[in-house]
Every structure is written in structure tokens, then in C-alpha cells.
DNA sequence: AACAGGGGCAACCGCTTGCCG
DNA sequence: TCGGCAAGCGGTTGCCCCTGT
């Protein structure tokens, strides 16, 4: 079935000849394209208007950037795709000079395969089941405890290297993590991802004090202590005294252990998606996702921060997983030189880049949590962009 | 040198959306 | 409000080229 316009006239199809290109370019340059259906007629082309439009948009437009995608562009595509999915036009808006068609083709021909090769589902950006097994498969036992990230709670919190992507950075705190939780102070579970030279990310969930707690965590967390210029801190805090010490997130297994969220009765993160669920919760629904960026108490002056010290908090209504407000905090750039930990309940857990980069890998593969971090950096304007990129994305979408 | 297979990319198809009379 | 039309968009197709045998 042809286009509406095509049915009315004899039109040529297939590849465009240089002569046709020249005619179209000349006409558009001189007259513009107020009405595409009339363009072929006036330009002397045996094409339908739709074909002309596509040719112009995807190939002839003077502002197009031809050539291979840069690594930065590739990461941007991955980052935005993780949020928007196959909305190529929206993704392309974040790549000046690139068309949706180009982005789509690049994704299908290149990026998708890379992600699959790394054991990631290109649709969800989650680990594929086979990869989960592989990553978990120490001695063939894929997390026999069946509680997701049991490593969080085992061995006094010091997970055996090579068996888990997580290691507890502070054995003392880790031990405290395993023992009876403090009676009053809520548990705050942090996941710190080092080995990110470009920036860091911090996520915090506090069921009741999401803003303040997250802010405290950010302020308290010594970003630079890993000596690698950045890190990822994820913290989940819940006021529910019944769930202390139980929360965990399983980046590999896609499920959480006896997490606090589970005990909210809202499904928590025990929906098989684990970390991804929480991410997806604020990624999938664009309208609700990028809720107003919040400058939390104690983080004054964060808006418009420079790349080095930028920190941004985005309050997200985590309706999808039913855990109440989730505070997502990000920071990009290198050290902030934050002081000592203020919140003594904070537990920090290192996440080895080997999660995605292979066992013992000091360097993660091209797609790993770095991307999340850089993604956050992008949203926070880490790419040097002006203004609040998060808001821009929100509005762009 | 010839052929097959696969990858990359341009173009097409068809559905959705928005505008206008 | 409704129908027609144009544009936008994502999915799919098919051609061309490269590479391996």
C-alpha cells in the first residue's frame, strides 16, 4: 500500500540518485518545505512527498552529522534509551546532527549486539537470565540462598571476592549490618561503586525522610576516598523497624533479598527486577519520572553546580514499586571532599566493577555502571551543558 | 575468482497524532 | 464533532558491500 500522495501519481521508489538529491536540495534551499506533498511537483521529482521528506530529514539536511558515532554519542544513546526505550526521535534529540533513523539503525546494528554480548537485555538493560546465572555461578550455584544478595549479610558483610560484586568497605559497619539493627535509627544501606573516573551516582531511599536522609548521605559520603575520582552510592533507608539489616539489591540476580521494600506489602523490589525495577520505576513513566528536581536541605547551592562538585537530587515518586518516595541523588565529577560520615547508621558496600566487567576485572566493560553514572552526569549537566539537563530531558520528552 | 552469508544503512510501510475546515 | 490531510514516528524490508570460504 502506498502513501496517500503516492496513490495519486506515478512515483519513483528506491534509492535516490545524485540528480534527485540535487533537485530536492535546491528546491528546499530556495523555497523551504511548507508542504511536503507539493515539494516533488515543484522540485521536478517523480517522488512522493513523504519520500522527499524522509530523504531530506535523514540524508540531505545540511545540519546532519555524518559518519560513525562517537563513544560519547554511543553512551548517550544507551543512557537515554534506558530511560525512554525505543523512542528514537526523542533519543535523537539528544544527539545533535543525528536522525532518529540513524540512531535506530546504529542501535539495531551495533549497540544492541554489544549489550547482548555483555549479557544485558537491550530492551530492559537488565542482565539476561543466562548472564545472571553465569555471574552468580560460583561453583554452579546461582545464589543458593535464594535470597538475592545474601552476600550483603554474610561473612560479616565481607563478601568473598569473586563470588559477588559486592564487598563491604567497612567491616565494622558491615558487622553491625548483620547484627541486630539499631532500635531506633533506621537502616541506611548504601552501595558504593568505585572505579568511575568520570563521576558518580548516589541513590538513596528513605521511606519517610527521603529528602533529608538522602541529603545527609550525600553530604556525609566521602566521594573521593576511593582514589578513583568518583563512586556510586546507593542508599535505602526505611523507617520500618522490622526490616533493618535486611535490605539489599542484587544487581546480578535482578532481585532483592528480604528487603525492606518487600515488607511494605507493596511488592517492594521483590518483583524479579530488583535494581532494575527501582530504576525502571522512575525511568519508564516519563511524565512522573522526572519529578521536579529538589534541592534538599543541606545541599544548598547545588543547582547550577559545576561538573566537579555537582550533586543533584531528584525526587521520584516510586509508584511502580510501591515503596513510596524514592530519592535519587547523583553527583558527577571528582571528589567533593566531603567530611566524615554524619549518619552513623550508614553502611557502605563496595560494588566491584566486576559485576559487569567480569570476575576480578579491574576495568568494567564498555557498558557497566559507569554508564549509569555518566548517564546521571549527563542528566545533571555533567557533559558541560548549560542549565539543568534533567529538566531539559523532562521537558524534551 | 566465485560464491554465500552477514552487517550496515537507506528507504518504505503503516499506524498515530495534530491541524484545519 | 467529524472527516480529510499532512506530518511524525517506530518497525520492517531490501539492497549493497564487505568478508570469509
Task: Tell me what the structure shows.
The chain is α+β, with helices and mostly antiparallel strands and 397 residues long. Among the domains are: 18-60, Orthogonal Bundle (Arc Repressor Mutant, subunit A); 71-118, Arc Repressor Mutant, subunit A. It is built from 14 helices and 10 strands. It has helices at residues 18-31, 39-43, 49-60, 71-84, 88-92, 100-117, 129-136, 171-178, 210-220, 274-283, 286-289, 354-357, 369-379, 389-396, and strands at 137-138, 141-142, 166-168, 187-193, 199-206, 232-238, 293-294, 311-317, 325-332, 346-351. The chain has an 8-stranded mixed β-sheet, sandwiched between helices. A two-stranded antiparallel sheet has the order 1-2. Helix 9 links the parallel strand 5 (199-206) and strand 6 (232-238). The protein is elongated. Residues 1-8 and 133-397 have low confidence and may be disordered. The protein binds a DNA duplex (21 and 21 nucleotides) through helix 3 and helix 6.
